[in-house]
Design goal:
Length: 311
Amino acid sequence: MITSINISQKQYFNWQECLWYLDRGFDDCVYQVRPGCVRRAFEFEGEAVLVDISYANGALTLQWLIGTKSTATINHVHQFVADWFDLETDLTPFYKLLLANQPLAYMAQSFKGLRFVGMPDIFESLAWGIIGQQINLSFAYKLKRRLVETYGTSLLYGDGKYWIFPTPAKLSGLQPDDLRQLQFSQKKAEYLITVAKQFADNALSKNIVLALPDFLSRQKILTSIRGIGVWTANYVLMKSLKERSSIPYGDAGILKALILHGFMKDKTDLQGMDSFYKTFAGWESYLSFYLWRSLANKPEEQETSVMPPSL
Protein backbone atom coordinates (compact mmCIF):
# COMPACT_ATOMS: atom_id res chain seq x y z
CA MET A 1 0.00 0.00 0.00
CA ILE A 2 1.32 3.45 -0.97
CA THR A 3 2.13 5.63 2.01
CA SER A 4 4.22 8.29 0.24
CA ILE A 5 5.13 9.59 -3.21
CA ASN A 6 8.03 11.69 -4.46
CA ILE A 7 7.92 14.64 -6.86
CA SER A 8 11.31 15.30 -8.42
CA GLN A 9 12.20 19.00 -8.28
CA LYS A 10 15.81 20.03 -8.77
CA GLN A 11 15.71 23.11 -11.04
CA TYR A 12 15.79 26.32 -9.01
CA PHE A 13 13.97 25.11 -5.93
CA ASN A 14 14.61 26.36 -2.41
CA TRP A 15 12.40 24.64 0.16
CA GLN A 16 13.56 26.85 3.00
CA GLU A 17 12.52 29.97 1.08
CA CYS A 18 9.10 28.45 0.43
CA LEU A 19 8.74 27.53 4.10
CA TRP A 20 9.74 31.05 5.07
CA TYR A 21 6.91 32.45 2.98
CA LEU A 22 4.39 30.05 4.52
CA ASP A 23 5.58 30.77 8.05
CA ARG A 24 5.89 34.56 8.24
CA GLY A 25 4.27 34.82 11.64
CA PHE A 26 0.68 34.88 10.43
CA ASP A 27 -1.86 32.37 11.67
CA ASP A 28 -3.01 30.50 8.55
CA CYS A 29 -5.40 27.78 9.65
CA VAL A 30 -5.45 25.59 6.52
CA TYR A 31 -1.87 24.33 6.86
CA GLN A 32 0.76 23.99 9.55
CA VAL A 33 4.47 24.58 9.07
CA ARG A 34 6.47 22.08 11.08
CA PRO A 35 10.26 21.51 11.25
CA GLY A 36 11.25 20.88 7.64
CA CYS A 37 7.73 20.20 6.38
CA VAL A 38 4.21 21.48 5.83
CA ARG A 39 1.21 19.51 7.09
CA ARG A 40 -2.09 20.04 5.31
CA ALA A 41 -5.52 18.43 5.17
CA PHE A 42 -7.24 17.97 1.80
CA GLU A 43 -10.75 16.99 0.82
CA PHE A 44 -11.42 15.19 -2.47
CA GLU A 45 -14.64 13.53 -3.61
CA GLY A 46 -16.04 13.59 -0.10
CA GLU A 47 -12.97 12.09 1.59
CA ALA A 48 -10.50 13.93 3.80
CA VAL A 49 -6.79 13.17 3.94
CA LEU A 50 -3.86 14.56 5.92
CA VAL A 51 -0.45 14.83 4.27
CA ASP A 52 3.04 15.92 5.31
CA ILE A 53 5.05 17.65 2.56
CA SER A 54 8.83 17.72 2.88
CA TYR A 55 11.88 18.07 0.62
CA ALA A 56 15.20 16.24 0.40
CA ASN A 57 17.64 15.08 -2.25
CA GLY A 58 15.97 16.92 -5.09
CA ALA A 59 12.43 15.73 -4.47
CA LEU A 60 9.32 16.69 -2.56
CA THR A 61 7.88 13.83 -0.53
CA LEU A 62 4.16 13.59 0.18
CA GLN A 63 3.60 11.40 3.25
CA TRP A 64 0.02 10.23 3.88
CA LEU A 65 -0.93 10.39 7.58
CA ILE A 66 -4.72 9.94 7.40
CA GLY A 67 -7.10 8.98 4.63
CA THR A 68 -7.44 7.06 1.41
CA LYS A 69 -4.50 6.35 -0.83
CA SER A 70 -6.57 5.81 -3.96
CA THR A 71 -5.04 6.76 -7.29
CA ALA A 72 -7.57 9.57 -7.76
CA THR A 73 -6.79 11.10 -4.37
CA ILE A 74 -3.03 10.78 -4.87
CA ASN A 75 -3.29 12.48 -8.26
CA HIS A 76 -5.42 15.28 -6.80
CA VAL A 77 -2.99 16.00 -3.95
CA HIS A 78 -0.01 15.66 -6.30
CA GLN A 79 -1.42 18.25 -8.69
CA PHE A 80 -2.48 20.56 -5.84
CA VAL A 81 1.07 20.57 -4.44
CA ALA A 82 2.58 21.09 -7.90
CA ASP A 83 0.29 24.11 -8.36
CA TRP A 84 0.78 25.34 -4.80
CA PHE A 85 4.56 25.60 -5.26
CA ASP A 86 4.52 26.25 -9.02
CA LEU A 87 6.81 23.29 -9.67
CA GLU A 88 6.38 23.21 -13.44
CA THR A 89 7.70 26.70 -14.29
CA ASP A 90 11.23 27.18 -15.64
CA LEU A 91 12.61 30.22 -13.81
CA THR A 92 15.67 30.66 -16.05
CA PRO A 93 14.15 33.48 -18.19
CA PHE A 94 12.98 35.31 -15.06
CA TYR A 95 16.41 35.21 -13.46
CA LYS A 96 17.98 36.53 -16.66
CA LEU A 97 15.65 39.53 -16.50
CA LEU A 98 16.51 40.13 -12.83
CA LEU A 99 20.24 39.97 -13.51
CA ALA A 100 19.87 42.50 -16.31
CA ASN A 101 18.24 44.98 -13.92
CA GLN A 102 20.92 46.25 -11.54
CA PRO A 103 18.71 47.27 -8.59
CA LEU A 104 17.03 43.85 -8.63
CA ALA A 105 19.97 41.65 -9.62
CA TYR A 106 20.52 40.58 -6.00
CA MET A 107 17.16 38.79 -6.02
CA ALA A 108 18.39 36.18 -8.49
CA GLN A 109 20.83 34.97 -5.85
CA SER A 110 19.28 35.98 -2.53
CA PHE A 111 15.86 34.51 -3.36
CA LYS A 112 17.06 31.83 -5.77
CA GLY A 113 14.68 28.90 -5.82
CA LEU A 114 11.77 30.75 -4.21
CA ARG A 115 8.74 29.47 -6.07
CA PHE A 116 5.51 31.41 -6.47
CA VAL A 117 3.43 30.07 -3.59
CA GLY A 118 -0.11 30.07 -4.90
CA MET A 119 -3.60 29.24 -3.68
CA PRO A 120 -4.83 26.50 -6.06
CA ASP A 121 -8.43 26.46 -4.81
CA ILE A 122 -10.01 29.40 -6.65
CA PHE A 123 -12.96 29.61 -4.26
CA GLU A 124 -10.64 29.88 -1.26
CA SER A 125 -8.59 32.44 -3.18
CA LEU A 126 -11.65 34.60 -3.92
CA ALA A 127 -12.85 34.29 -0.33
CA TRP A 128 -9.40 35.32 0.93
CA GLY A 129 -9.35 38.28 -1.45
CA ILE A 130 -12.70 39.45 -0.07
CA ILE A 131 -11.67 38.87 3.55
CA GLY A 132 -8.48 40.89 3.08
CA GLN A 133 -10.04 43.96 1.49
CA GLN A 134 -9.24 47.16 3.37
CA ILE A 135 -7.77 45.50 6.50
CA ASN A 136 -4.32 44.47 7.63
CA LEU A 137 -3.10 40.90 7.27
CA SER A 138 -3.18 40.06 10.96
CA PHE A 139 -6.89 40.80 11.26
CA ALA A 140 -7.59 39.12 7.91
CA TYR A 141 -6.06 35.87 9.20
CA LYS A 142 -8.19 36.13 12.35
CA LEU A 143 -11.34 36.43 10.23
CA LYS A 144 -10.25 33.51 8.08
CA ARG A 145 -9.69 31.30 11.11
CA ARG A 146 -13.08 32.20 12.57
CA LEU A 147 -14.73 31.36 9.26
CA VAL A 148 -12.90 28.04 8.86
CA GLU A 149 -13.36 26.89 12.45
CA THR A 150 -17.06 27.76 12.37
CA TYR A 151 -18.01 26.35 8.96
CA GLY A 152 -15.13 24.14 7.84
CA THR A 153 -14.33 20.50 8.62
CA SER A 154 -11.30 19.12 10.42
CA LEU A 155 -9.19 16.03 10.99
CA LEU A 156 -7.68 14.96 14.30
CA TYR A 157 -4.17 13.55 14.29
CA GLY A 158 -2.12 13.12 17.45
CA ASP A 159 -2.86 16.16 19.57
CA GLY A 160 -3.59 18.42 16.61
CA LYS A 161 -6.66 19.51 14.65
CA TYR A 162 -6.24 20.21 10.94
CA TRP A 163 -8.81 22.32 9.15
CA ILE A 164 -10.24 22.25 5.63
CA PHE A 165 -11.66 25.44 4.11
CA PRO A 166 -15.48 25.49 4.04
CA THR A 167 -17.17 24.42 0.81
CA PRO A 168 -19.18 26.87 -1.32
CA ALA A 169 -22.30 24.82 -0.57
CA LYS A 170 -21.77 25.33 3.17
CA LEU A 171 -21.28 29.09 2.93
CA SER A 172 -23.96 29.68 0.28
CA GLY A 173 -26.70 28.86 2.80
CA LEU A 174 -25.62 31.51 5.29
CA GLN A 175 -27.14 34.88 5.98
CA PRO A 176 -24.97 38.00 6.37
CA ASP A 177 -25.80 38.13 10.09
CA ASP A 178 -24.13 34.72 10.52
CA LEU A 179 -20.84 36.20 9.37
CA ARG A 180 -21.40 39.48 11.16
CA GLN A 181 -21.14 37.49 14.40
CA LEU A 182 -17.58 36.62 13.34
CA GLN A 183 -16.79 40.35 12.89
CA PHE A 184 -17.20 40.40 9.13
CA SER A 185 -18.50 43.72 7.84
CA GLN A 186 -21.97 43.68 6.29
CA LYS A 187 -20.60 44.12 2.78
CA LYS A 188 -17.90 41.46 3.14
CA ALA A 189 -20.50 39.02 4.43
CA GLU A 190 -22.72 39.75 1.44
CA TYR A 191 -19.85 39.48 -1.04
CA LEU A 192 -18.64 36.16 0.35
CA ILE A 193 -22.09 34.59 0.32
CA THR A 194 -22.68 35.85 -3.23
CA VAL A 195 -19.46 34.20 -4.46
CA ALA A 196 -20.28 30.99 -2.58
CA LYS A 197 -23.67 30.84 -4.31
CA GLN A 198 -22.03 31.27 -7.71
CA PHE A 199 -19.84 28.24 -7.06
CA ALA A 200 -22.56 26.17 -5.41
CA ASP A 201 -24.84 26.77 -8.42
CA ASN A 202 -22.01 25.86 -10.86
CA ALA A 203 -22.23 29.32 -12.42
CA LEU A 204 -18.54 29.78 -11.64
CA SER A 205 -15.62 27.39 -11.26
CA LYS A 206 -11.91 27.21 -11.93
CA ASN A 207 -12.55 25.32 -15.15
CA ILE A 208 -15.04 27.93 -16.34
CA VAL A 209 -12.51 30.72 -15.81
CA LEU A 210 -9.66 28.72 -17.36
CA ALA A 211 -11.76 28.04 -20.45
CA LEU A 212 -11.95 31.77 -21.27
CA PRO A 213 -9.55 32.84 -24.02
CA ASP A 214 -7.42 35.50 -22.39
CA PHE A 215 -6.49 37.46 -19.29
CA LEU A 216 -8.98 40.29 -19.83
CA SER A 217 -11.94 37.95 -20.28
CA ARG A 218 -10.94 36.09 -17.12
CA GLN A 219 -10.61 39.33 -15.24
CA LYS A 220 -14.01 40.48 -16.56
CA ILE A 221 -15.91 37.40 -15.39
CA LEU A 222 -14.54 37.91 -11.87
CA THR A 223 -15.10 41.67 -11.69
CA SER A 224 -18.70 41.16 -12.85
CA ILE A 225 -19.38 39.68 -9.41
CA ARG A 226 -20.42 42.17 -6.76
CA GLY A 227 -17.56 42.74 -4.36
CA ILE A 228 -14.78 41.64 -6.74
CA GLY A 229 -12.78 44.65 -7.91
CA VAL A 230 -9.77 44.73 -10.21
CA TRP A 231 -7.28 44.23 -7.37
CA THR A 232 -9.07 41.15 -6.04
CA ALA A 233 -9.56 39.72 -9.54
CA ASN A 234 -5.89 40.20 -10.43
CA TYR A 235 -4.80 38.72 -7.11
CA VAL A 236 -6.97 35.63 -7.64
CA LEU A 237 -5.81 35.17 -11.23
CA MET A 238 -2.23 35.41 -10.04
CA LYS A 239 -2.58 33.13 -7.01
CA SER A 240 -5.00 30.53 -8.31
CA LEU A 241 -4.62 30.46 -12.11
CA LYS A 242 -0.93 31.41 -12.23
CA GLU A 243 -1.54 34.28 -14.63
CA ARG A 244 2.01 35.57 -15.05
CA SER A 245 0.91 38.96 -16.38
CA SER A 246 -1.33 39.69 -13.41
CA ILE A 247 -0.34 42.74 -11.35
CA PRO A 248 -1.96 43.59 -7.97
CA TYR A 249 -2.18 47.32 -8.70
CA GLY A 250 -2.57 49.39 -5.56
CA ASP A 251 -1.03 46.82 -3.24
CA ALA A 252 0.69 48.69 -0.41
CA GLY A 253 3.62 46.29 -0.27
CA ILE A 254 4.31 46.49 -4.00
CA LEU A 255 4.22 50.29 -3.92
CA LYS A 256 6.58 50.38 -0.93
CA ALA A 257 9.05 47.98 -2.59
CA LEU A 258 9.07 49.90 -5.87
CA ILE A 259 9.77 53.16 -4.06
CA LEU A 260 12.54 51.57 -2.00
CA HIS A 261 14.17 50.19 -5.16
CA GLY A 262 13.95 53.57 -6.91
CA PHE A 263 11.42 52.67 -9.59
CA MET A 264 8.72 55.06 -8.34
CA LYS A 265 9.08 58.54 -6.89
CA ASP A 266 6.04 58.13 -4.65
CA LYS A 267 2.77 56.19 -4.47
CA THR A 268 1.16 58.43 -7.10
CA ASP A 269 3.81 57.70 -9.74
CA LEU A 270 1.72 55.18 -11.68
CA GLN A 271 3.59 55.92 -14.91
CA GLY A 272 6.81 54.81 -13.26
CA MET A 273 5.12 51.62 -12.09
CA ASP A 274 3.80 50.81 -15.57
CA SER A 275 7.15 51.51 -17.22
CA PHE A 276 8.90 49.29 -14.72
CA TYR A 277 6.58 46.32 -15.17
CA LYS A 278 6.85 46.49 -18.98
CA THR A 279 10.47 45.41 -18.71
CA PHE A 280 9.27 42.16 -17.08
CA ALA A 281 6.49 41.32 -19.54
CA GLY A 282 5.25 37.80 -18.93
CA TRP A 283 6.78 37.69 -15.45
CA GLU A 284 4.83 40.44 -13.71
CA SER A 285 3.31 38.16 -11.07
CA TYR A 286 6.66 36.58 -10.21
CA LEU A 287 8.23 40.01 -9.95
CA SER A 288 5.44 41.10 -7.58
CA PHE A 289 6.05 38.01 -5.48
CA TYR A 290 9.78 38.74 -5.23
CA LEU A 291 9.09 42.38 -4.39
CA TRP A 292 6.91 41.18 -1.51
CA ARG A 293 9.79 38.93 -0.46
CA SER A 294 12.14 41.92 -0.43
CA LEU A 295 10.05 43.38 2.40
CA ALA A 296 10.97 40.52 4.73
CA ASN A 297 11.53 42.85 7.65
CA LYS A 298 8.13 44.46 7.16
CA PRO A 299 5.65 41.58 6.87
CA GLU A 300 2.71 43.81 7.67
CA GLU A 301 3.28 45.55 4.32
CA GLN A 302 3.19 42.35 2.26
CA GLU A 303 0.09 41.54 0.23
CA THR A 304 -2.15 44.19 1.76
CA SER A 305 -4.87 45.74 -0.37
CA VAL A 306 -5.63 49.44 -0.31
CA MET A 307 -8.02 49.24 -3.27
CA PRO A 308 -11.77 49.48 -2.67
CA PRO A 309 -13.94 46.69 -4.08
CA SER A 310 -16.09 47.38 -7.12
CA LEU A 311 -19.70 47.65 -5.99
